[in-house]
Amino acid sequence: MLLFYGVDPEYTHNLVVLLQELTKYTRVPAAIKEAVILNDYAVQTRYPGEYVPVKYREYKKALQIAKNVFKWIEYKIITESDR
């Protein structure tokens, strides 16, 4: 999304950092800010270690958050491309 606004984002996978930067260019709804919880899953799947298994309801919530983010980004690009 930052690229859409002409911003070369910092090289990071940290969603907190990326969302903070994004708020400089557009209002980010609370439901989208929830995506920061996905950071934990990124670390667990990328780096070896002993982690607590993800429960099914946590998986479903994370998946829904990710879907919401994609839908929001698609909406923003479609609605703001016409400007």
General description of the model:
The protein has four helices and no strands. The longest helix has 26 residues, at 56-81. The chain has 83 residues and is mainly alpha-helical.
- The percentage helix is 55-70%
What would the average pLDDT be, to the nearest integer? Answer: 91
Sheet bearing the most strands, described? none
Order of helices and strands: HHHH
Q: Report the uncertain regions.
A: none
Number of H/I helices: 4
Head-to-tail CA distance between termini: 16 Å
What is the radius of gyration?
14 Å
Number of strands: 0
Rough shape?
globular
**Proportion of residues in β-strands:** under 5%
Compact summary:
This protein is mainly α. 57% of the residues lie in helices and 0% in strands. It has one domain (3-81).
Could you name the key traits of this structure?
83 residues; 4 helices
What is this structure's SSE topology?
Layout lengths: L14 H8 L7 H4 L4 H9 L9 H26 L2
